[in-house]
Amino acid sequence: MRNALITAWAIIKDNLSSKTTLFFVIFFPLFLTLIFALGFGAAAEPHVVVVVNGNNSLAGYLNHTELFTGVVGSNEREALIHNYIYVEVNGSKVSIFYPQEDNYLVPSLEAIIQDYLSGTNTVSFNILSQQGFTYYDYVISGMIGVISLSNGVFGVTGVAAGYYRDKLVDRIAASPLKSYEWVMGLIIYEIVITLISTVPILLLGLAFGFLPLISVSFVAFLAISTLMFAGLGAVIFGLSPKDKLFVAQTAANVLVFPLMFLSNAFFSLSAFPPLLKPIVAYQPLSIINDVIRDLVVYNVLPPLFDIGYIAVLTVGLVYVGGRLMRLRETD
């Protein structure tokens, strides 16, 4: 492990001395957040899910409107944590609990429910505003997961390709350094870069009123998620021919961008077609974003399934990446 740390430190000093690298570490994440998250994410309208308790057919009726996505549920706290509107129906009495920022939606929702329950003589509404989470909380926390993805995959393939192109790998291979120590050095470098890149994202979030709950658990999970994606980058580079380094970069692009946009980073799961929802919900970046939001936004413990899912993928990808990404053909 000592050799891996020494290698990581050498890679950090080498790359952070470059102004181009500093741009991509500090300013490029901000650019991505402003353009992709705050721009494209706005179209997703992630806060129009209505959780209905007491009338399952009303949830189905809401699905036929252009404003709301109706789902059946009975957990008011869980609904409000995720910035959903919660509707409880008890005969002709309807209670609507909604996040403060969604107050403009309540009159429309009330009118739709009134129309649906038109057979009832009198519908009594109880409207209650609750403290919710903002749109910026959603997309900026999702952007943190995107940074771990892009730094992990692009970082490993990019740095390794540069070292091969500049023949630096030949010099490294002449040292006693083992292949797995070389891979771990690269991965540790990417973890450090991700932590650095996250700082300007969080500072930008403060400007939009996003107050994240920073904890040791969050930092540790961010490191683990970067470790997982860096392992994926090592697998990609290890499978790519070294005389055609563009193959690794192309494969990384082909994989990263679908993972980025077919995830819950910028768009709520309800914004995707039914056929894509299971894929989006259970792909690695979405699970990572769920855990990050639980830790820094909702202040709840993440499900054990999510933690186990990422842990298994991390161990598997790092192991395979360490085996494939060799310094020497004889290793």
UniProtKB/TrEMBL annotation:
A Pfam family per the record: ABC2_membrane_3
Membrane topology: Multi-pass membrane protein
Keywords: Membrane, Transmembrane, Transmembrane helix
Transmembrane helix found in the keyword field: yes
An annotated GO cellular component: membrane
One GO MF term: ABC-type transporter activity
TM region(s), chain numbering: 21-44, 138-161, 182-208, 214-239, 251-276, 296-320
Protein name as it appears in the record: ABC transporter permease
UniProt organism field: Metallosphaera prunae
